[in-house]
């Protein structure tokens, strides 16, 4: 609902649109002036409009990573009252039942022990390998891929160990010294 719709709804209760518009504008001006001067407007059962002070802080520009000093400031805030909370919240009313439930992420399947999983579900057939990198990964997964050196004596554990073993296979050539430096 926007301001015009609010005025129309109030006019339907009062009977005069001009009076409703004056009432809405007057109320909003009083709230803005009072909160702007540091006071608060408390409407019993509805809520409290107030000014909150924020301390200075150090923020970070996400694009550049540069730190930025943010000075202390005062911002307007609203705290809903208990009557407002209970009428909006889930209290078994028809309005609450009509609202759609928030979307939830699907739950992850529970871990099943290896011996139970192999008995319960047959293993799927391996997919055909299409690229050399995929062939290397498939060979590692099946255990037919071996690395030379110390990594061959111990089986690799986890993804990180597999990456380290792969990097060890690709030895980098030594860097040439820069010209002019001795």
Automatic annotation (TrEMBL):
**Recorded superkingdom:** Bacteria
Q: Where is the composition biased (Basic residues)?
A: 173-182
Q: Which Pfam families match?
A: Bac_DNA_binding
SMART domains, per database record: BHL
CDD domains annotated for this entry?
HU
Q: Where is the composition biased (Low complexity)?
A: 109-122, 134-163
Q: Cite the Gene3D superfamilies for this sequence.
A: IHF-like DNA-binding proteins
Gene Ontology molecular function, alphabetical? DNA binding
What segment(s) does the record annotate as region Disordered?
82-182
Per UniProt, which keywords does this protein have? DNA condensation, DNA-binding
Give the protein family: Belongs to the bacterial histone-like protein family.
* Cross-referenced PANTHER family: DNA-BINDING PROTEIN HU, DNA-BINDING PROTEIN HU-BETA
Protein known as: HU family DNA-binding protein
Q: What is the lineage of its organism?
A: Bacteria, Bacillati, Actinomycetota, Actinomycetes, Pseudonocardiales
């Amino acid at each position: 609902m926007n301001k015009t719709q609010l005025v129309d709804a109030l006019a339907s209760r009062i009977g005069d649109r001009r009076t409703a518009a004056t009432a809405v504008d007057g109320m909003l001006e009083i709230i803005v002036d009072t909160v702007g001067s540091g006071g608060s407007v408390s409407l019993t059962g509805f809520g409290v409009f107030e000014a909150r002070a924020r301390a200075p802080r150090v923020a970070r520009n996400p694009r550049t990573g540069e730190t930025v000093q943010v000075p202390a400031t005062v911002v307007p805030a609203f705290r809903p009252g208990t009557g407002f909370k209970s009428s909006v919240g889930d209290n078994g009313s028809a309005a609450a039942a009509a609202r759609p439930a928030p979307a939830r992420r699907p739950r992850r399947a529970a871990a099943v022990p290896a011996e139970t999983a192999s008995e319960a579900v047959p293993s799927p057939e391996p997919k055909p390998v299409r690229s050399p990198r995929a062939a290397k990964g498939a060979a590692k997964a099946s255990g037919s891929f071996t690395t030379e050196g110390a990594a061959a004596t111990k089986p690799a554990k986890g993804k990180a160990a597999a990456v380290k073993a792969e990097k060890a296979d690709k030895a980098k050539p030594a860097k040439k010294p820069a010209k002019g430096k001795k």
